[in-house]
Amino acid sequence: MAKAMGTANVKSMEVTASGVNYAVGQSAAPGAPWPKFNVKTVTRVVNYETGSMRDDSVRTRVDDPPRGGAPFVRGEQRLIFVLSGDHAWNVVGETATPAPIAMVDRQFQLWTTPEGVVKAAIANKATVQGRTFAFAVPGRFKVKATVNDQNLVEKVEGVFAHPVTGDMPVEATFTEYQDFGGVMYPRKIRRVEGGFPALDLTVTSVKVNVPVDIQTPADVRQATTGFYSRVTSEKAADGVWYLTGGSHHSVVIEMKDHAIVVEAPLNEERALAVLAETRKLVPGKPIRYVINSHHHYDHSGGLRTFAAEGITVVTSEVNRPFFEWALSAAATVSPDRQAKARQKPKVEGMGVKRVLTDGTRSVEIHQISGNLHHDGLIMVYLPKEKLLSEADAYTPPAPNAQPMSPPNPFTVNLSDNIAGLNLDVERVLPLHGRMVPLAELTKAAGK
Ligand SMILES: [Zn+2]
Predict the structure, then answer these.
(1) Looking at residue 342, what DSSP letter applies?
(2) Which of helix, strand or coil describes residue 184?
(3) Whole-structure pTM value
(4) Does the pLDDT at position 2 exceed 70?
(5) CA 98 to CA 100: how far, in whole Å?
């Protein structure tokens, strides 16, 4: 099969394609398809000898107005995703941002390319059965590949380790093989991830053994374990703290006999750090609730860790069935704390409003109604402290940056909700960005 593919002599590749891709984990509601993007062009270079890969793409959003997540950008968006060995990072302009959370997904992608899966099968001593071969990279992923009657790889099925769903299922198909300058390569590449289309590309050019030299930047090299565990806390009011230090924030609220955490983002590493900080800030009181703003995977990747400790998840009813499944789903590739604890998840769904109170402090949770970012987006309001915490409807730009014009429709909707509900807000604790006075949000909403 390696011979049919011409794989043995392939050390590096450059593949250019166009088509559509989707923002996995960013649907407008659980069970809805991933948001779709038109890919004007994507060029992937791979070096199989160094285990490195770089995707450089230009894409535009299909939905207008946008529905669901992924960064809100008007017009063309350029994305550069890189992997080298055990390092993953993204490039924006001249800046490389470490993305350790994407490492396993990208390694899975690299080693499930038509050429890569044959090389990985040989390296990992795959078992062969008829037209299929299977192998595993412990702690990372499991793969089963099927070849057609010309011994060309036509299907790859597998799972990789995922913080939200334990195992993330993927199925890729490679069809319409052509001879691209001595190497057989599929003209059509499709991928389904988590049950919905993730990629549908038509390949236009394939170059073999072009020089691919991907160097890991120094700051990316340092960002391995511990990258998500840096937590800084800032007191926002008596008994209320804003936990920052990375890309996704949390809020800790001390109640009479327990603590509440708003948001468990990213992954287990982040969740453990947020749990530890909460216990330091509120010693001797159990953490009873974790409030989840919405189910987008970057905002819910720590919930399995909270569930493993028996902490109740409060979320929109829109998300409850999904979390009841995801928080008890199998994590066979990389068993996490919840896979070991096997705690029955406690998930409480809510409608437009819920109030948690201890008689002294009130924590109001409101649906952000009609927000196209997510059907079950909720925000947390502390009436006495005049604080509001929300995710993704409004993210403050860098200080003194020009507000988006016309304004982000998600922010306009949030502003309308705050006004419509008569919430008396002084400061906003956004779950991305920085603490700001309400006036900044109002200005960003173009009011
Ligand atoms: Zn989101």
Answers:
(1) -
(2) strand
(3) 0.96
(4) no
(5) 6
